[in-house]
Amino acid sequence: MIKRNILFPLVFFMVTIVWQWFFLDAVRWGEAAAISILTFLFAMFYDWAKVPYKWKK
C-alpha cells in the first residue's frame, strides 16, 4: 500500500522543485515538502477508507 501511495507525492515533489528551480527565483522546499506529505497522507487515508468493514465477524 505504501509503495503505491508514495509514487505520486514523490513525483509531485520532484516536479515542483524542478519547476521552481527553472522558472522562479527561489525554491520553496518547505511548501513543496508539506504539500507532498499531505498528498501522501490523503492517499493513505483514501486507500484505508476504501476497504469495507465486515459487519458480521
SSE inventory with pairings:
Blueprint: H1 2-23, H2 29-50
Can you walk through the features of this model?
- Helices cover 77% and strands 0% of the residues.
- It has one domain (2-49).
- The chain is rod-shaped, with a radius of gyration of 16 Å.
- The mean pLDDT is 90.
- 4% of the residues are buried.
- With 57 residues, the protein is mainly alpha-helical.
- The two termini are 24 Å apart.
Structural class: mainly alpha
Low-pLDDT stretches: none
Q: Note the main sheet.
A: none
Strand count: 0
SSE pattern: HH
If you average the pLDDT, what whole number results? 90
Helix count equals 2
Radius of gyration: 16 Å
Distance between the termini: 24 Å
The geometry reads as rod-shaped
Number of domains: 1
Helix content: over 70%
What is the oligomeric state here?
Answer: single chain
Strand content: under 5%
Keywords:
0% strand; 57 residues
Summarize the structure.
The protein is mainly α and 57 residues long.
